[in-house]
Amino acid sequence: MSKQFDVIVIGGGPGGYIAAIRAAQLGFNTACIDEWKNEKGGPAPGGTCTNVGCIPSKALLQSSEHFEHANKHFAEHGITATGVKMDVAKMIARKDAVVKQNNDGILFLFKKNKVSFFHGRGSFVKAVDGGYEIAVKGAADETLVAKQVIVATGSNARALPGAPFDEENILSNDGALRIGGVPKKLAVIGSGVIGLEMGSVWRRLGADVTVLEGLPTFLGAVDEQIAKEAKKAFDKQGLKIELGVKIGEVKSSKKGVTIAYANAKGEAQTLEADKLIISIGRVPNTTGLGAEAVGLKLDERGAIVVDELCKTNLPGVWAVGDVVRGPMLAHKAEEEGVAVAERIAGQHGHVNFNTIPWVIYTSPEIAWVGKTEQQLKAEGVAYKAGTFPFLANGRARALGDTTGMVKFLADAKTDEILGVHMVGPQVSELISEAVVAMEFKASSEDIARICHAHPSLSEATKEAALAVDKRTLNF
User: Fold this and answer.
1) Residue range 40-83, pLDDT digits in tens
2) Residue where one domain finishes, among candidates 351, 367, 394
3) Residue 308 annotated as lining a ligand binding site
């Protein structure tokens, strides 16, 4: 006997669980299906983000940052700390506890909002009079039917050809979060978000970390001036980053991993490491979805084809998050999830791809929104730029972290903010002001005229806006 719903969401990650909650808030009888399991086999909703992505990586970054501060920076504050040690097992246990808190929080939100949760793998079976039949394969198999289906099945780590993940020596983001002890030598292929964040965690704990990147430029998607500033900081910290390499054979043995590669000059090199983290991007997760059973259209990457409203080629079927086009970011998935639920209700859901912020949670943090300077140049847009260094910010000096800057890019004629780029302390929090400003079509003058609390890191944002008109007050 099938169970009838108004809306079924397949996937309980940031896009899926948020879509389910919003649909329920709008009065729809809603079900959410998710197959993630915790160590005891119980439900662990939250997707990659909560289980092996955003949340656990931030927990490890925080622990490792405390360790580095105790070892290297406490003395500056007059604090003597000797014999500081890291209990890796306890650090991992804390990370796991943080993950569980988030898992449990989502299950509570489902109950609070009267979302029916099904623990298992959801897949299309066929189109029926009531919409679509969805099978749930789990501890208890179920058959569900709904007129509206939202697919939010996320993405998986992309494997390096010839070097499949074994999560022992060759690690995806999942294995990188579960390393049992500090490796003496750690190799990372790919200098994207995951590679830099995980490389930073284990470098702080004492690993000798080398990052191999195929592209000739560092963080090509980041504003060039900001990327150079970040690279300078990482080099100073001892994070070795080699650009323009070509990876050859990767061999795994009981001793560790050997990576053959050619450097930027084309010279043959060999890197031996205890562990290797592969972070060369992610691929849409549509395997086992049953797309062919209902004729759901996929593209050559395996992503679900959608229009600007997240509609698929099938009536009543929508898709959001990593499984569709656009940036693979948890907050982008959330925005699409809310927008789709509202569109199903006949409302006008809103997602502005031009104001989606990006953050890399290294130290210094890197955050940006809108266009980079190189993009504006390529597009022939006349612009003005203004920068302000944290070196001249009173709060940054008091924190003891003056690395980096804030950079504004504004239209040369209208002064509308076109992009804001930051590298420095806690810029993951500062970027939201820029997002709000751009969403409201603010000018750099608008931000320059707003009173910011003193002393605060946010004053660097105001000063960078002032710098667009060459009238900084503190630099």
Assistant:
1) 999 999 999 999 999 999 999 999 999 999 999 999 999 999 99
2) 351
3) no
Q: Is 330 annotated as a binding residue?
A: yes
How many folded domains does the chain comprise? 3
Is 190 among the annotated ligand-binding positions? yes
In this structure, the answer to whether residues 58 and 108 fall within a common structural domain is yes
- How far, in whole angstroms, is CA 290 from its chain's centroid? 27
Per-state percent for the chain, helix, strand, coil, to nearest 5: 35, 30, 35
Distances (CA, A) of 267 to 15, 49, 264, 359: 44, 38, 7, 34
Shared domain check, 137 and 55: yes
Residue 139 has pLDDT above 90, yes or no: no
* Whole-Å CA distances, 3 to 25, 33, 121: 20, 13, 16
Q: Residue 162: inside a domain, yes or no? A: no
Q: What is the amino acid identity at position 199?
A: G
- Tracing tokens 């029916």 back to the chain, one arrives at 116
- Phi and psi at residue 115, to the nearest 5°: -90, 130
Q: Is 181 annotated as a binding residue?
A: no
Q: Known catalytic residues?
A: 454
Are residues 26 and 130 located together in one domain of the fold? yes
Segment 3-41, tens digit of pLDDT: 999 999 999 999 999 999 999 999 999 999 999 999 999
pTM, two decimal places: 0.97
Q: Are residues 112 and 252 in the same domain?
A: no
